[in-house]
TrEMBL record, chains A, B, C, D, E, F:
It comes from the Bacteria. This is LmbE family N-acetylglucosaminyl deacetylase. PANTHER family: BLR3841 PROTEIN, N-ACETYLGLUCOSAMINYL-PHOSPHATIDYLINOSITOL DE-N-ACETYLASE-RELATED. Coiled coil: none annotated. It comes from Sphingobium vermicomposti. Pfam families: PIG-L. GO terms for molecular function: hydrolase activity, acting on carbon-nitrogen (but not peptide) bonds, in linear amides.
Length: 227, 227, 227, 227, 227, 227
């Protein structure tokens, strides 16, 4: 029995570039290696004055480079303003994200967690769920929420929604590819003991793996699966 | 993508006979039809004076008949005392259930829900989880909890654990087989509006199906999946 | 003992027309038949370009027709923009809804569920609760949240708030009136296996009824009751 | 609208004598004054060597005296061993409690809270729920859980089930009777700042009242109501 | 062992003036008396037309007077519009609050509760948590959420986040100072049985105290502590 | 501000030997080095036929050796039967544990988590909480629950209580001592990728540390703190 073995197309929704690598870079790499078509939708882009244009351009290059390393089939940029999704009419965001997802037609949809501290993550989760409403039989068969270091542990888990994983994907063969891909985000890697450090990423993979007797894993919260 | 398509062997743990039909009779029938080996472990047996021997014997015949209709490969009776599992040393129960499951080696394990009102259900859930500890890489890849009419809605959901399903298995093709199998438990079927009535079983299947745009479904809570 | 028997006036707050029928059409019909004054407040109206004007006009006619069938005493339209409540200053919405409720002076207040997937539902729930703050002894004695097919099961129950009902109102005598009223929303009824189909509505009523040994029921989450 | 106005018979299940006064003494007094028949079932009795016989006898006299003050119609003693319900076969307890409740036929059933620290409370809650299963239409229409000072706040609320009240019964007219009745348990009243002190009882009533704009109230968690 | 004994600087974030007194006035007074530097950040100010200017001016005077009584070292006004934080870009609020907190460098941070009914409270909680992200080792070592009468009990606890306290600070010596300080908000004190009455404040302190065998206490939810 | 700096005496309650090292070995080592008196109460002992006597004897030696390495002041063995606490009258266990804790008089009490898969852990948690009831002002000022690899992640977190930590103790200086102490349990250390492997222990410490910008930490759930 194997969750990935019958998947044809995966869509990962990332509020900001690098969330998708932190959350499911190993899973994407494993899926791509197995011939599954992996798409990433990056919802926001940093915009002046909150973000410097040169930094934004650099991050975009880093993103594409990381995605190439992982084997992402296509990266879709929606270019909503980063750290300002609260200022975007929700119907605009819902429409834009749903249009992108309808083109991809994923059977596995990976979304950020609604309890992440960044409001952009919370909003993107909700927008993705609006698309995933089972109003036909052709939507994604499975929706999983991934965890993002520096986001998922930093709101108030237990008071706000806590990430309590129940799906674990073995990334023993791709943890190194994940770390290499994240390392290519030179602007985003931090030294230990930051949660965005290589040490923390590796520790999380080791821990999530050990919980299910695997050498490395990424963990998810099952949102909905239809079988 | 399809949860059942890579399963080889299913074990369903039933505290009492007919729980397995109410909870996942449609899933079992669909799996059996697809060539998956389906095992049922019935943990308890009614014993005098709490239960009349003639009734107990009759239920056992009904059980085997229902299982034959569903296509169950093998039914395993552990024969612990029904409605008295609180009087059984937990290590005895754990050992016995674990031995049975180790022989079956299921990759999909279906268990009753820990929030069911019957203490036997709560105890059996815990015993099954003890077996499912990931102490090797060969345990069940997926553990799901099923819902049982006349048990799952009757404790105090929201104060005690609530059954909030996130996995839905399409039983459009086997809902009739499920109802036929349950009907063979002549001692257990009740007239409307009892939760153990045919009307209630069909309504639940319709509702769980509609939630995911299917004509009939059985719903589960994901306990743990390793992929 | 009977929850409805001492109620004088009910107010149902509906984010969009038909939510009130799906959620508590049977309860409203039973209450109206018993001489209780039933009011509905429809918070939003579809507005171009998100919604076509001709469709909006038609839905309004359907709403009034359905309410007449149910025996609603008065329907109050607040006309905030549908699917765009996130763009409305919250103090405007709070003020408008509170003004309407203050005129009605209900002793039973029925509101949508805060965990519904539609942001409009979440916002309306909060606005209704602001009005219901017990700042005097004359507010509604009881506030219940109703469930809405195609909304309540489709966010991420368990991660987001789950609808776990603890109040059940017998609608055995009015389930047919409820379905007739919903059927008059010709634009909104969907064929099976959609959650907005007649089959799903009937299945939900049968299931909620069976849980409490009634032939049909509507279920609610108790928010607050003062006795 | 008034929760008590259509009640005919109340049964309060108390694990130990005085739980019922702490939890719902004011409600019982108000109900009795309104002509409602109020029954109390005391599940356990202290037994040597855990409890001294003379103390046990004295507490029984205090109980009957307190019940007379409150206007209790009848007090039923089941005499299971106090602080030792874990040693009683659950089927015995279920049978005994159910027999007592079947004779009373209450339409309102008040039970201790499942998250109380005392195991006896947890077990009694479950036994009461077994009786309250809606297997006919004649069971209690409403089941509420009450809070008990020195029990309900002392397990690990938030990790174990938390008492989050949503039903408030006005005891402005009977708070003094409640305190007088509790004071008659001379063996059980403690000086401030103990939770079993008169000050704490009065503070709780004032706080629960203020939450709903009443001078004094008892608070409950709605378990199930059928209307 | 004593939570306050090693604290050097406390920052209390108050959505509106008087929240800080209701939530932690006794703790502030005790801390100030012990030589701890206590800062209050008042996030909003009433603005016409929602609030009359003369009232706003008066409340500001009351605030400063109350803070002087309590021994607050400094009060910081951010002057965002009251009851309209939903209209403020979140990045503006986050930036402003974070700037203020960075200047104070508290080791203990007290914030309103995310489940309070007032949207301003929910938003301020999130903004404070954004600042408190552990991106260096110099942030606040402890973050606690306080409860506010007339806010914390009035959303839908149990459906929305419930305030389930696990930290209790003894205010036996300062409950009178707290009540005196709150009384100086002449515009805000209400007569019994309002939750904002002196009776309710005192009852809450007595109850929270009794829960931990103290004569008076303020209760908090632990958000995060690093030791 | 520092949680440990005002602690005088710590008691750690361990259901089985090595739980205390896995859960809080680093904290104990740091506390002992700071001059705090650290006590461990080991509740059970393996007994034939469930456990071989020679193994039990060996584990006891390993325990004492590990405790010496950590700097434990005293180890108290209660010798209840391991994996059979469900067969022990709860009042016996409560009495025995409470007697031991009353002698130690800890101001910081560390207990296993109630959601651990092992029934012994659940029972010990409850027994420790019974002792910790605030019936005087002299009980432990702080009670924290620790997490145990191979126990805490293996029940059904989210359905059963989930370990959602909110207290983090920096063990950067003692993570090596913790691992050395656990390594001395030669019978208990497992190779990767078992949760009881050195790799998993180190990964957990790194992750819990990174969450609060520390190089290593142990995480806890705050049960109750009085300050």
């Amino acid at each position: 029995m194997n969750l990935l073995s019958t998947v044809r197309r995966i869509a990962v929704v990332a509020p900001h570039p690098d969330d998708e690598i932190l959350g499911c870079g190993g899973t994407m790499a494993r899926a791509a290696a197995a011939g599954i078509e992996v798409h990433v939708i990056v919802v926001t882009r940093g915009q002046p004055p909150l973000f410097e244009q040169s930094l934004v351009d650099r991050i975009r290059r880093e993103t594409l480079h990381a995605h190439a390393m992982i084997g992402v089939a296509d990266t879709h940029f929606l270019d909503f303003p980063a750290a300002a999704l609260d200022q975007v009419p929700r119907s605009d965001l819902n429409h834009s994200l749903s249009t992108a997802l309808s083109r991809i037609e994923p059977d596995l949809l990976l979304v950020p967690f609604v309890g992440d501290i960044h409001l952009d993550h919370q909003i993107v989760f909700n927008a993705a769920m609006v698309h995933a409403r089972p109003r036909t039989s052709s939507g994604p068969a499975c929706v999983l929420a991934y965890e993002t270091l520096s986001e998922t542990n930093w709101l108030a888990p237990g008071v706000t929604p806590a990430f309590i994983p129940n799906v674990f994907i073995d990334i023993s063969t791709t943890i190194d590819a994940k770390i290499a891909a994240f390392s290519s985000f030179e602007t985003q890697v931090k030294p230990s003991p930051d949660e965005r450090s290589i040490d923390a990423i590796r520790a999380l993979a080791t821990l999530r793996g050990a919980t299910v007797y695997r050498h490395a894993a990424e963990a998810f919260v099952m949102i909905r699966q239809v079988g």
